[in-house]
Specification:
The complex is a heterodimer. Chain A is 44% helix and 15% strand. By secondary structure, chain A is of the alpha+beta class. By secondary structure, chain B is of the alpha+beta class. Classes of the chains: A alpha+beta, B alpha+beta.
Chain lengths: 398, 369
């Protein structure tokens, strides 16, 4: 086995680090909240800077303007960006949607959208959840009917990240009115600027806006802005969920390692009139313990990556890594709050705030992670049924 | 990056799995665990013909010169079968000590270990129970006389030789003694894990100058890398055992019907099984990644192995303990194999440094001086 980077991959990692040294992440304007997954804030300027270097499209096939670089380069990029705390919030969504468009998109979508993604001009929101369709996603009510050369889209989506500042959404809608559950669904690409779109912010418990609720009222979407054939939405969703969950969490291990580094620095800091916490054996033990879990999480993500890269089923590994990432994140941030004591609750910018108030913010965001992208309960059920082959729990009669 | 085992490792794993399924079923493990003198001499001879005890011995000394990854591949299978044997102690740790020490005694013993004719135990821990050079009290000089005792010495019931780490004037000193040297007395410790543990008493035992392994005072430097490899091998053993617990639990959850459906169709049980899967997979890939770091002599190997051993111990014990809840009352019975895996994991978690020791290594490595 070989867990290492090739010489070319190491060169690329160094190239990314050199870019980050020359363009410190904190110098880029941020236009959206850091949701705490490790991908930092939403910064269009930073996304565009990545686009300028060709890094957004580097793994695409050459006929779509890419460089056909192996997936490993994307992993290297994300890991380096996360370790540096860079604001690449929209990047995972861009990689994911571009991959979908390359696989399933019409020629129009490929021609219209891929160049914008490559430049860092287009960012995306996902329209899956609805007020009455959360973990039971197939209970969704958003629907679209064909009217001439357009789909007419009506419905309501919720908990869509960065929707108000993104460019396009991928909306799961029922396109066959006679269908139920997983049949007759389609994935539509929807331009935020279309008439009938009403995108409203939802303030989260952090006091900031990350999620949006989207009201779609007679939105006319061009007929060929559907991904693949109509009715294929569920299959694409299922296929996409594994990779979504992967790309949505992969960088959490380097992120948590960075947070752990901050905590290590903090407990080493001399305190007036006392011994620094680093002398406390319980503190040492708990930080070391967190380090072992982060290392194991990273190994599990690489295992999942390797399966995905080989085109092998990775559902169980990806769901397990997501559950572990999000629950471990909550534990590490909770430990951080404990170590900071009364300083822990002070917000960034507040007098006496420690570690730039980052622990407070990431602690709060962590409580959304075990819900977003499929709750931990859904992930565990997925592992049990799809990876371990346990029988599905019978559905309640409607 | 390439996370597939080499063709040779796949072959080794397949042949080990087949052999152990046929020759070491749970009933045999059980019988050996219950027998206070239980050692499968017949199986040890058979695995010697398969070349296992010589896996890490260089070809010129009768072994096959396998890699760290080869050893992990095999030991994971030994764990999966809960194979009771001195393999990790003799064929991994003691073998590594002897190979590193060199010298006529070691070079004579290694071919015999490869042939399965001799087995070598390690006597390091004392009353403190700590794997720590500062905790050594037993004197270790050669030539000289040796009086005192070692505790928690495994494999004595099967061993023909023992490596003893004592404290000499120059520091920790390793000695290689034949078990039949006059004055060595083995007193069994009754352990719940089914592993055979002993107190090894030394009553005015003669030590000769050619008993020295390495130079006087170099004992810890000689043993530390071998224990590092042992810690990694124990991690792989725990992964294999935890994998089998996962399989037993999933199989039980599929077929055990209560309330009109298999218990595996209840979320409470499904989610417990999912956690077992997470623990097994994360522990496995951390172990393999660490094996790669050791093989490629990465600078951070000490911390990497400590990380793997501490994590695998915690994860595998969690699997075993949660497994009892999934398996229900049948898993509480002696005839069911679950407890054997649990106890094997427990024994492995304590060997080659427990979690507390390894976490302290990790603490220093992450910047906690």
């Amino acid at each position: 086995m070989d867990f290492g980077l090739s010489a070319a991959e190491q060169d690329f990692a160094e190239e990314v680090r050199a870019f980050l040294r020359a363009h410190p992440p904190e110098t880029f304007p941020e236009d959206g909240t850091d949701a705490g997954y490790g991908s930092g804030a939403h910064s269009r300027a930073f996304t565009q800077a990545l686009g300028d270097r060709g890094w957004l499209s580097m793994s695409w096939p050459r006929e779509h303007g890419g460089q056909a670089r192996p997936m490993m380069y994307q992993l290297v990029l994300l890991e380096e960006l996360a370790a540096a705390g860079a604001p690449f919030g929209p990047l995972p969504g861009c990689l994911q949607v571009a991959d979908s468009i390359i696989r399933h998109g019409s020629e129009t979508l490929q021609r219209e959208i891929l160049p914008q993604v490559a430049r860092g001009d287009a960012t995306f929101w996902q329209g899956y959840s609805e007020p009455d369709a959360g973990s039971d996603l197939l209970a969704l009510k958003t629907h679209a009917r064909l009217d001439g050369d357009h789909w007419v889209l009506d419905g309501r989506k919720i908990w869509s990240s960065h929707a108000g500042i993104a460019t396009y959404g991928t909306v799961l809608a029922r396109t066959d009115p006679a269908s139920t559950r997983n049949r007759g669904l389609s994935m539509l690409m929807v331009d935020n600027r279309l008439p009938g779109m009403d995108i409203r912010p939802i303030r989260s418990l952090t006091g900031q806006v990350y999620h949006y609720e989207i009201f779609m009222d007679g939105v006319r979407v061009p007929r060929d802005w559907v991904m693949g054939k109509p009715g294929e939405g569920f299959g694409q969703l299922l296929k996409g969920l594994d990779t979504d969950r992967f790309w949505g969490r992969f960088y959490k291990a380097p992120f948590l390692r960075r947070i752990l580094g901050l905590l290590v620095e903090y407990v080493n800091t001399p305190v007036e009139g006392g011994t620094p916490p680093v002398r406390d054996p319980v503190v040492r033990r708990r930080l070391a313990h967190a380090a072992t879990e982060i290392a194991a999480l990273r190994a599990l993500f690489y295992r999942a990556a390797w399966l995905i890269e080989r085109g092998r089923p990775a559902t169980g590994e990806v769901s397990a890594a997501k559950v572990m990432a999000d629950e471990l994140g909550q534990r590490v941030l909770s430990l951080g709050m404990e170590l900071l004591g009364p300083y822990g609750v002070l917000r960034a910018g507040s007098r006496w705030a420690r570690l730039h108030g980052e622990i407070e913010h990431q602690y709060q965001t962590s409580w959304g992670h075990t819900l977003a992208g499929g709750t931990s309960e859904i992930q565990r059920t997925t592992i049990a049924v799809r990876a371990l082959g346990l029988p599905a729990e019978p559905r309640a009669k409607a | 990056m390439d996370l597939s085992p080499s063709p040779a490792q796949q072959l080794l794993q397949q042949s080990a799995r087949t052999f152990l399924q046929q020759r070491c079923p749970p009933e045999r493990v059980q019988q050996l665990a219950l027998d206070p003198r239980g050692f499968a001499a017949d199986l040890w001879k058979e695995i010697a013909t398969l070349g296992w005890p010589g896996l890490l011995i260089p070809p010129e000394l009768g072994g096959s010169g396998g890699s760290v990854g080869d050893a992990l591949a095999l030991v994971e299978e030994l764990g999966r079968a809960c194979f009771p044997s001195p393999f990790v102690g003799s064929a991994v740790v003691a073998t590594s000590v002897l190979a590193a020490a060199g010298g006529p005694r070691a070079r004579k013993l290694l071919p015999a270990l490869a042939m399965g004719e001799r087995i070598c135990a390690l006597a390091v821990l004392e009353e403190s129970g700590r794997l720590d050079p500062d905790a050594l009290a037993l004197p270790g000089t050669a030539p000289g006389r040796l009086t005192g005792r070692k505790l928690f010495v495994a494999d004595v019931h099967a061993a023909t030789d023992v490596i003893v780490l004592g404290r000499g004037p120059a520091g920790p000193t390793a000695l290689l003694l034949p078990m039949d040297r006059g004055g060595i007395e083995a007193r069994p410790l009754d352990s719940m894990t089914g592993d055979k543990l002993f107190e090894l008493g030394f009553a005015d035992v003669e030590t000769r100058s050619d008993d020295l392994l390495g130079a006087p005072g170099d004992g810890w430097a000689l043993l530390a890398p071998a224990f590092r490899l042992g810690a990694l091998a124990r991690s792989a053993e725990m992964v294999g055992a935890a994998q089998r617990v996962l399989e037993l639990c999933v199989e039980h959850a599929r077929v055990r019907v209560q309330g009109g459906r298999p218990i595996g169709a209840y979320q409470a049980v499904q989610h417990a099984c999912a956690d077992l899967f997470r623990d097994v997979e994360s522990a496995r890939w951390l172990t393999w990644e660490t094996g790669w770091k050791v093989e490629t002599s990465r600078p951070d190997v000490d911390a990497a192995v400590a990380t793997a051993k501490a994590y695998c111990a915690e994860a595998a014990l969690r699997v075993a303990r949660r497994g009892h809840q999934i398996m229900g009352a049948i898993g509480y019975s002696e005839e069911h194999p679950l407890h054997l895996f649990h106890k094997r994991i427990l024994a492995a978690s304590l060997d080659a440094g427990d979690a507390a020791l390894h976490l302290e290594t990790v603490a220093r490595a992450i910047g906690l001086p």
